[in-house]
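Case study.
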Amino acid sequence: KQEVTQIPAALSVPEGENLVLNCSFTDSAIYNLQWFRQDPGKGLTSLLLIQSSQREQTSGRLNASLDKSSGRSTLYIAASQPGDSATYLCAVRLNLRYGTSYGKLTFGQGTILTVHP
Amino acid sequence: EPEVTQTPSHQVTQMGQEVILRCVPISNHLYFYWYRQILGQKVEFLVSFYNNEISEKSEIFDDQFSVERPDGSNFTLKIRSTKLEDSAMYFCASSARIISYNEQFFGPGTRLTVL
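After joint prediction, the assembly is written out as follows.
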């Protein structure tokens, strides 16, 4: 059974710092990995999706890397801002067979990020 | 930009009552999902749906739950007889296709409170 773990559980940083959020998963046979942002009481906003054949993806100040063989992904946030304060969730999609997957995402617990001015 | 919408945003119900949560997926998407998040816990997969049938479901999705796509735009989750432990945020998601770039887009959620 796929288990996804995120560390740290919470992180508080001053504005402007670069930071790294970590995600690990137990079954390396993943199809892809998706990073989400969740604001309190709100839905999930997709930030980045990395396919299993990719090593990294970038969007603006965000960079996500994937090391499938070691079961790890990191989300790097450059020059953090107070508006980045949210919970960041990592989710993996298992590669069931023959290169397909039914789409089920398995989520980590999330990292609660606070960026203070 | 297209988005997934959900109604209602908050539903309060008495234990044992039936509830229907509604979702309008992104219009050209073909794959639909329901997830839930109990307060303070992980987001959990409930069910995936494609071509008018369930393609995968979790152990949570027992016979008290059902899904339906009653028309070309709506996707619903029905809980027949709600229990206290069904209280959670329910998220609908959709994606364009299963294989290749299957980025899932989530709605804002329906907060279900069972009293």
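Observations recorded in class. Chain B is about 0% helix and 50% strand. Chain B has a mean pLDDT of 92. We will return to this complex in the next lecture.
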